[in-house]
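We modelled the chain as a single entity of 324 amino acids. Its sequence is:
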Amino acid sequence: MPNSARRALLACGLSLVALAGVSHAQALSPTIKLVVPYPPGGSADTLARLIAQPLQEQLKATVVVDNRPGAGGRIAASQLKRSPADGSVILIAPNALTTIQSLVYEGQLDYKVMEDFIPLSRLSSFPMGLAVPATSPFKTAPQLVAAMKGSKDANYGTSGAGGLAHFAGLEFGKTTGIEWTHIAYKGGAPLVTDLIGGHLPVAIDALVDQIEQQRGGKIRVLGIFSDKRYSLAPDIPTLAEQGIKMAPVEGWFGAFLPAKTPAPVVARIDQAMAKAIANPEVKEKLNELVLQTAYLDSADFTRLQAAELQQWAPVVRDSGFKPD
């Protein structure tokens, strides 16, 4: 056989081996778990259940939602680190867990987000809102700031200590010159109850948890912590357009894989996530919950996650906050 023919056959054989390797690397488990770090019924759970069917169609595998609540989501995050790195387990988590809790509990966790996880896809996002009771005299954020400066009753509430809203409030106070006290509630329900009742002057929370009461005329969202208006609630102004210039505070939900998942598997699931979140029915149902689809691919999402950890690290550190 001529040398040229041998070289051609060898090249062909190597190509087939390479393709076989890619195919093998992309092979997925017949069952894929979307691990949600909270009980059924919340936003993360709803999102996971909405994308499960489109993912199943894209990946040709059975996709199930596995709720693993506990320790504010840290149990599920720890589980992801110990899961097989083959695409069979995907964590659906907010940045309240992967960014804020990673910093608040730094040194106490058995995982590190940027070392033990692969940020796979950002799926949706939502702004944080600054709200007052409907009976409040304040119609704008600057009016609130003027009244709060030097007030003995200068305080704000959130649905829990050590969360994104907690530190957003600290940044708001630092930016505006308000020396106010954080009041931590045990969840969003008692927070909004006290706000509606006028027992709390200000609450900071995810807009998704405020919008129903805002539309019902029970609270007034003075502004969102964003640099542009939110397309799903365009009537609510931003703090920036009211002259309060601070870094945007945005909540989001994303998907994460164990760190050593092969690149072809990451790419395949990332592409499936992009198609699932772009599904018109998924988008419509998320919009009804005031969650906007906000897909970022793995590369961009990884950069966002790293940037957020860098952004919030000094805020958490300078706050002196220590979890119980």
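As a brief sanity check on the tokenised model: Residues 3-26 form the longest helix (24 residues). The longest strand covers residues 117-133.
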